[in-house]
Amino acid sequence: MHLITPTPLQDLLLDPATHPRGQPHLSAASGLVRAGAWLYLVADDEHHLGLLPAGAAVLQQLPQTPLVQLHRILPGDLPADPKARKKRKPDLESLALLPASSAHPSGALLALGSGSKPNRQRGVVIALDATGRPDGAAQVVDLSALYTPLRAEFADLNIEGAFVANDCLHLLQRGNKGDARNACISYPLAPLLAWLAGTRSEPPAALRTTLFDLGMVDGVPLGFTDGAALAGGEGWLFSAVAENTDDSYADGECVASAIGWVGVDGVLGRMATLEGAPKVEGIALAGDRLLMVTDADDPACASRLLAVALD
Questions:
Q1: Strand arrangement of the beta sheet that strand 2-4 belongs to
Q2: Rounded to whole angstroms, how far apart are CA atoms 116 and 120?
Q3: How far apart are CA 280 and CA 292, in angstroms?
Q4: Model-level pTM?
Q5: Cβ atoms < 10 Å from Cβ of 274
Q6: For the segment 211-225, what is each residue's pLDDT rounded down to a tens digit?
Q7: What is the chain's percent helix, strand, coil content, to nearest 5?
């Protein structure tokens, strides 16, 4: 695979007085979306979204400064002890931008739990206003009815990415050493939005499940971590990492990371590895660049915003 060198832009720093555990940064960024004038980040061990301005200044290499704001989406606070927090965290691993609908005239964000444990089957819908800012209280959704059929197919369910394209919501199942299958599961968007809004009693069935073989690095399979639709329905991009772990719960060494392209026909096109193997867990398009956020699996380390140029 071709090797690409990411450009570091910002550490995801914030005012520690605004963080429930006094951290001066986000440390587990796991999803990234651009909405209006804002970049949104979901962190898998927080009850808040992170947001920062998406203006040109933020997307350049600047002196480090606390730019991230926090927006609460779940009640309560998680324990400070790392093991207790890992056990109780909602594991919000993916973030998608939903289009305007009757329920949300300016669109909404959808954060999704991974589904890897019973307490990780919650979703959160955050309505947006015309400027792309959160509008009103977040709505918590029980995803168990959506995830139960998936668990019958993937015993170690781990939904790590979500994006909207071609009138579908696409969920990305991440493989690991125990089960290396990666998959894109596609749902019809209109009935799914109706279910999220509470006007439909059951979620729609998946239209299709497409399996992907992303290959291995040093005996460790690459697994999806996020996806983003290309403009004009021209397919989609994804990020993937090779994490040396046998299941969806335990963390492991990240031995490689990559980005890839899937065509409109749903077929894997090409992939490129990322120099330095940053553990990229969220991606979003910004013009001719792909923005990426990392998760260092260490609360003491700030997640980072990176970029690569696309051709």
A1: 2-4, 268-274, 254-262, 236-243, 223-229
A2: 6
A3: 6
A4: 0.94
A5: 24
A6: 999 999 999 999 999
A7: 10, 45, 45
Alpha-helical (H) ranges within the chain are 82-88, 144-153, 189-197
SS3 letters across 192-238: HHHHHHCCCCCCCCCCEEEEECCCEECCEECEEEEEEECHHHCCEEE
CB 127 within 8 A of CB 134: yes
CA distances in angstroms from 251 to 65, 67, 103, listed in the order given? 29, 28, 38
Residues 215 and 152: beta-carbon distance below 8 Å:
no
Question: Would you say residue 39 has pLDDT above 90?
Answer: yes
Rounded to 5 degrees, φ, ψ at 307 are: -145, 150
pLDDT for position 60: 67
86-95, 159-168, 202-211: which range is least confident on average? 86-95
Residues 254-289 have pLDDT tens digits of 999 999 999 999 999 999 999 999 999 999 999 889
Determine if residue 136 is left, alpha or beta; phi over 0 gives left, psi from -120 to 50 gives alpha, anything else beta.
left
Whether residue 252 contacts residue 295, with contact meaning beta carbons closer than 8 Å, is answered with no
What letters, b where the CB count within 10 A reaches 16 and e where it falls short, cover 170-203? Answer: bbbbbbbbebebbbbbbbebeebbbbbbeeeeeb
Q: Within 10 Å of residue 69's Cβ, how many Cβ atoms?
A: 15
Please compute the mean of the pLDDT values over residues 193-216 and round it to a whole number: 96
pLDDT, tens only, 280-294: 999 999 988 999 999
DSSP designation for 6: P
Which strand (E) or helix (H) includes residue 96? strand 92-98
Enter the tokens of residue 26.
């986000």
Write down the residue that tokens 């994006």 correspond to. 163
Query: Among candidates 149, 97, 152, which has minimal Cα distance to 127?
Result: 97
Q: Can you tell me the distance from the alpha carbon of 85 to that of 184, in angstroms, rounded to the nearest whole number?
A: 29
